[in-house]
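pls ignore typos typing on phone
zinc ion + seq
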Amino acid sequence: MSEYISRDAIHTKIEKEVERYFDDPAPADGYYLVEDVLSEIENFTAADVAPVVHEHWIKVQFADSKALINDGNLCLTDGFLCGSCGHSVYEKSPYCPRCGAKMDVETP
Ligand SMILES: [Zn+2]
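k done
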């Protein structure tokens, strides 16, 4: 499985390491190598990825086709709504099946 990193984050990390390692003005050889690496990172083709949406399930009760009439009383069915898109499900899952939100946020 591929892993992705932030171009800005790695650029900032390398620059901090360079500042820590080299004197100012920087010595020639090593610094130019770092400049080449930073240039490669800047020009490398970006992967086609989407940001992860972190959300939670909202507990609700449904009165839909799964609701039962019992002695004249409407029985509601427990369910959950996606905190991102509002999609309804009867059982929680690690990701919303509609929008793909990752359900790892504690319920507020
Ligand atoms: Zn969703």
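Strands lie at 57-62, 68-70, 73-75, 77-82, 88-89. The chain has two domains: 7-43, 51-108. more later
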